[in-house]
Structure formats: structure tokens, C-alpha cells
Amino acid sequence: MIDPAFDTMLTSFLARLGGTGPALVLLAAVLLAVFGLISARRSQARQREAAVMAELRFAELMKAQTEMQGRVAAMAEVFGSKQSETNQAINSRLDGLTQRLGQSISEQTRSTHENLRRLQERLAVIDTAQTNIQSLAKDVVGLQAILSNKQTRGAFGQSRMETIVADAMPHGAYQFQAQLSNGVRPDCTIRMPNGQPPLVIDAKFPLEAWNAMADGRPPEAAKVAAQQFRRDMETHIRDIAEKYLLPGETQDTAFLFVPSESIFASIHENFEGVVQRAHRARIVIVSPSLLMLSVQVLQALLKDQRMREQAHVIQGEVVRLMDDLTRLDDRVRKLHGHFTSAQKDVDLILTSTEKLARRGARIGDMEFEAVSGVSPPAEKTVESRTGQLRLRVVDED
Fold it and tell me: Where do the TM regions start and end (predicted)?
């Protein structure tokens, strides 16, 4: 095989010679053979070098493969031990995790059962509350039906007023639906002290215009409803003044009962003209709390009147009490005199007993002797079975 570089050089050489004669062709063939031989030898030398290099590389590769196999074996051994340790660690962790999961699941199950029990209790409470709400809704619907009807609404306001008056006033101090001389029947009349005319309370409140005003209508409709409410209030105040304020028969002031604190506050806040007109007509607009306070004041006045009416009875009882106290004082003084005399007698008795005690002690301290002769004239003798005893007695006060 001719080297391509040699072929290129030969072609270039022939081109430079400028001809293709036989001698030149022979020379070229000889040169070509020489160069082919040289090229073949070079190629063989390269092949041998390449084979040596290949063997060296193969030996290096085998060595590297051997080292690699040793390393792979060591790594396999290491990986095997690590895998065993890893498996043990994973198994232990899985066991612990399983145990914790079991405990957690048990606790979660217990907590779930407890929460379900509490939820059932709360649901029972909610059911009860819902039942109460339903009954309350029925009551609200009934109340709405009452308030939508003028007659039943008046009965509702009158019922609240009657409850407040009956709770605060004693029986006989008030009267419901009492007829006046002009034939009208006010909702309540309260007896005043000192023979004064009764106080009239009216419980009829115009609520149609108020409901129309509080229904959340547009501003123009609300303004019209407010004007209608103002006219209704003024008309009702005028009717109370004309029907219930009778000179000499009733008080010159009457109460207009409003059965709601919020309505009472709104009237005083937004309808000052209505309040002033009521004051000029001597009509007092009262809420449930103000009516209760007023009734309690009237109760105190009636109680004071009853106290004044019973003052002479109390005075007579006090006089009889003083007489009894005087007699008790005399009897105590007499008893004290008796106790004083008895004390003196007791003192005298104590003196006598002390003397007797002293004399007895002296008798106990005396000496007894047996005598054979004649006793002295100042001594008293006493005969005994054993002999004659000598006894000397000294008289002392």
C-alpha cells in the first residue's frame, strides 16, 4: 500500500521533470518501488508500535479493570454492610413509626369519638335552641299580628301598663277602665293621697305611622310617615286632654304610656315639637321604666298618707305604752326595796353565822382535864361518867 503523501510527492516530482519518457518512467517506477518499500516498512513499524501501544494500553486497562473490580468489590462489601445497617435502621424506624402511628391513630380515634360525642351534645343543644327559636318565631308572628291590629295593639299596651301598675301599687289604690262623668273609660286611674282627684293613664299609642316610618322606606316616604306620626301624636294628645282632664274629677295632668323604651327615646330625640305640645297640654309621655318610677313615688305618697291617717292611733298606743312603762318602773322600784331589805337581813344572818363559827372554833380549841378537888367559883363543872370535867365559858358579844 502506497502512502498517499508519497504518491503526492511522486506526482509532483514527475510534473517538475516535464516529460513521460521510458527512462523517466523506469526511474519513477524504481523510486516508486523504493518509496513503497520504505513506506511499507514504516507502516509495519507503526503497526508494531501501535500493537505495543495497544498491548500497553490493554495491560493498563486490565490493571485498571482489576483495580476497578477490587474497588467495586470493596464498594459492594461496604454497600452491603451499609445496606444491612440501613435496613436495620429503617426497620427500627419503621417499627417506631408504626408504634407511634398506632398510638396516634388510637389517640385520634379516641379524640374523634370524644369530639363526636361533644358534637352530638351540641347538636342536641342546637336542636333544643332551634325548637325554642321556632316557638319564639311563632310568638313574634303572634306579636306582629297583635301590633298590626289597632284593638289588639291597644290591649297589648294596656296589658303592659296594667302589669306595671298592679305589681307596684297596693290593691284598691288603682282601677282599670273606670267610667268618668263624661262617659269615657280611661285605661287606668290611680287614687291620689289627701282626697285629691285620681291620676289618669292612657295606654293607646298610635303605632301605624311609627311602623311605616321604621320600615326602611326611601327618604321621601320616611319623611311623609314622620309627618303622619307627628299628626297622629298631636291628635292623640288633644283627645287625652279633652276626654280625661276634667276639673275637679281628675288631675290636671295625665300620663301617655309608650310601651317601648326605644320609641320613647326616639320621640324625645326626633320629635321635640310633639314633646313640647304634650307638656303644654299637661300630658306626660312615659316609658315603662318612667311609669314604674312614677308609680313607686305614688306608692310612697299613699304610704305616707296612711301613716298620717293612723297617727292618732299611734299616739294612743304610745300613751298606753308610757302608762305600762310607768307601772313597770314602780314595780321595779318596789322589787328593788324588797331586795334591799332582804340584803340587810342576809347581812345580819351572815354576822350571826360568823359569830357561831368563831365560838365553835373556840370550843374546839379548849382543853379537858379530870379534877378531884373543888372547882373554882368562876368555873362551871359538868358531870360525866368518866369523871368531872372542867369547862370555862367566856361570854363575848
Answer: 20-38
Query: Strands 283-286, 254-257: parallel, antiparallel or unpaired by DSSP?
Result: parallel
- Cα 228 to Cα 99, 149, 202, 232, 381, distances in angstroms: 79, 18, 21, 6, 136
Under a CB-based contact definition with an 8 Å cutoff, are residues 257 and 157 in contact? Answer: yes
Q: What is the mean pLDDT of residues 128-143?
A: 74
Count of the separate structural domains present in the chain = 4
- Whether 126 is in a domain gets the answer yes
- Which among 134, 160, 180 is the end of a domain? 134
pLDDT of residue 382: 43
Q: How far apart are CA 1 and CA 201, in angstroms?
A: 144
Q: State whether 81 and 218 are in the same domain.
A: no
Q: Which range is least confidently modeled, 121-135, 251-265, 276-290, 363-377?
A: 363-377
- Do 297 and 327 sit in the same domain of this protein? no
- Quick check: is 330 in a domain? yes
Residue 140 counted as domain residue: no
Domain boundary residue among 134, 161, 193? 134
Among the listed residues 248, 245, 242, 214, the one whose alpha carbon sits nearest the alpha carbon of residue 228: 214
At which residue does the C-alpha cell 374523634 appear? 112
CB 271 within 8 A of CB 300: no
Bridge-partner residues for 286, per DSSP?
257
Please check whether residues 240 and 385 belong to one and the same domain.
no
Question: 387: which residues sit within 8 A by CB, 6+ positions away?
Answer: 370, 371
Domain span including residue 389 = 366-397
pLDDT at position 350: 85
Give pTM, 2 decimals.
0.41
